[in-house]
Amino acid sequence: MTQDIKIDRVIDARGSFCPGPLMELIKAIKEAKVGEVISVYSSDSGSKRDIPIWVEKAGHELLGVFDRDSYTEFVVRKKR
Amino acid sequence: MAEKLAIVLFSGTVDKLYPVSIIASGAVAMGMEVDIFATFWGLNALRKDMLTTNMKISKEFEEMGQFMMQLMKQKNVPPWYEILKKAKELGKVRVHACAMTFDLMGMKKEDLADFVDDVVAVGEFINIVRDAKITLFI
Hints:
The complex is a heterodimer. Chain A is of the alpha+beta class.
């Protein structure tokens, strides 16, 4: 599924603990333009709950959550 | 108006300063404003010279302190005050120094970390957080 989505920016937050990856995502979304897609890599288990909740609350779009070998990739589109 | 999280930071041990900065981060992430009232040991921990030298752990977990510190260093967990500074960059987090402690300990504004916003009396703090949605005493 990710093949046909153009990712504008990748944030590698692996090794960072809760709430690090979420905070990095928020910062990146702030800097991004509406419509841009950001991918975050996180090895922190809290992200799996926190990131989808934040994305919904902040009104963006979660395009996908993908479990990789030792981390999870979250793909988010900035909507506003 | 944004919902508010109020934290009374009384403790000055590192193991309690961490949850303060992490919970404050979570709150700004979820769109809340945060007001922290640093009093007594909590304010003492916000002295510039205390930030990097403070290694104190709650008494009941004292024997775990060194192990935890090592573990956190090894796993690259940022210091608690860096987490707090990041939260401040991201949203509205205000750190208020308790005027009573400030006077009692003979502090000057320049003794305190840069992220301390102001010195307020308790009544003023209560007024700031009277509509807080969540209140914590740490």
